[in-house]
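Q: Hi! New to this. If I give you a protein sequence and the SMILES for adenosine-5'-triphosphate, can you show me the bound structure?
A: Yes, paste them in.
Q: Okay, here:
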Amino acid sequence: MGKLRSELGPFFRHFVPQWRWMALGTLMGLITVVAGVGLLSLSGWFISATAVAGLNAATANAFNFFYPSIGVRLFAFSRTAARYGERIFSHDATFRILKELRVWFYGHLEPLTPGPLARFRSGDILNRIVADIDALDNLYLRTLSPGIIALCLSGIFFMFLRLFDPMMAGTTLAFLAAAGVGVPMLAGNAGAKTGRRLAAQSATLRTRIVEGIQGMPELLVFGAHRRHLEAVKQEHRALIRSQLRMSHIRGISAGMITLLSGAAMLSVLWIGADRVGRGTLDGPELALAVLGVLAAFEAVMPLPTAFQYLGRTREAGRRLLEIVNTAPEVIFPGHSAARPDGADVTFDAVSFGYTPQGPPVLDRVRLHIPAGQRVALLGETGAGKSTLANLLVRFHDPDAGEIRLGGADIRCLSESDLRGQVVMVSQQAHMFNASLRDNLLIARSDAPEADIRSALASARLLGFAEGLPEGLDTWIGEAGKRLSGGQARRLAVARAILRDAPVWVLDEPTEGLDTITEQALMTELLEVSAGRTVLMITHRPVGLHRMDRVLVLEGGKIRERR
Ligand SMILES: Nc1ncnc2c1ncn2[C@@H]1O[C@H](COP(=O)(O)OP(=O)(O)OP(=O)(O)O)[C@@H](O)[C@H]1O
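A: Thanks. Here is the predicted structure of the protein with adenosine-5'-triphosphate bound:
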């Protein structure tokens, strides 16, 4: 129970704001089953009473057909209306809760980027935010609400039957308890392991499929697509085996409920027949009780499946909490505790390593870039240049030392203040599956057309953009696939230009460009970056002579190039 609470408890907090819709949905569900019981028992009583009354001309004339037939119509109508209302309110509540949960989960994902999130595969994260959150609908829609409905209905029906005969009422309650508590517990136990497996297996399958689609060109070129397909098939087979087992459990528990409802009817019929024989109950009342019992079992019918899938829901909850409970590497203060005075950048004895065991990537790095100075940073591949850039935008924090911007420790700056000061063009700048214009507007959503065009012109991309079929509104495809590598790079540079921040970090901005475009872009970059503080990581000699300083990162330390 304690484990259940720790696995699912954190999610219930998000249920509270929706309690009105949830209560309304549950109330409607209760009215539906009560009306079902009323409809069937009253109809049974009405038909039998009419038949009995018809046996004798005197009673036939005195029999009131009017009120019972109104009652039947009323129950039929209210059942239909309440069922409709129940679907609307309970689903509305569920979707609102899922929306809340998704936003909450996304809020926890953001600070984990890129550090701790790198441990997870993107398909897996997608699965958590979509399928695992969807699986939580089981909690209210299939467990909590039907559970409350079944409990209330059992109580109401017990009190009602007691009016006719306590023994019939007690027997029915015992059968309802067996069907509403016993069978769900059995189903819950039987489905717990498989349910957990089911959640894990569908996550693995989805992840593999997403990875297969992302890596399709590689798989095809290296002829590994058949092997990949075979792995997908195997995972699919395992998933089907689990689903089959869950279907068996579902079938068996539905059969058990049907059996119990039949046994309950027979028992009530048995007891009732005895009462009719003794004259304490009349025939139509017996029909009322027996058919009422049949209808009452509708309330417990959904419970075994809900409990059977609780294992899957718990696994989904565990997978979500695994991310939610991961501590972010970097925490920004809500408000800046200091204001940068200028745009000079200082690395003060900064050390950093990705793992505590290995040698540090940066070892007590000292670097001061005065405001407005442009610095090139060279170094062998793997030397730690991108790491240094990532520290400046706080993708990670140093293990030791301090990074200052305008004299202020960047850890004192709020996220928006830091982002407003430092812009980075990373090596793998992501292009969104949107128009070229939208890809630029993520840098400055209110940028006027003139600024967008000027940024594109500076990045040597305006001619190309204007030549596209729909100009700047042309869709650039998934991850910018409809752009060449060099065009995507220039678009990333155009973004930085549009952002207009005082400090620029450019991680190999001219990588993938031909020499002429590279030289033109460098010239333009040096022009538009005039007056800004620039840290440019590069492997290429182009434009180095026009930088204020050229530094080399080697063995975790920085030295001036001679
Ligand atoms: N997220 C990470 N987790 C663990 N190690 C990492 C991570 N990112 C980089 N490294 C390691 O840190 C070291 C420095 O990497 P970094 O990307 O900073 O080098 P770089 O100088 O920018 O290389 P390149 O010129 O090839 O881009 C490398 O040994 C790399 O394997």
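A: Strands lie at 345-352, 362-369, 374-378, 400-405, 408-409, 422-425, 503-507, 533-537, 549-554, 557-560. Let me know if you'd like me to explain how to read the tokens.
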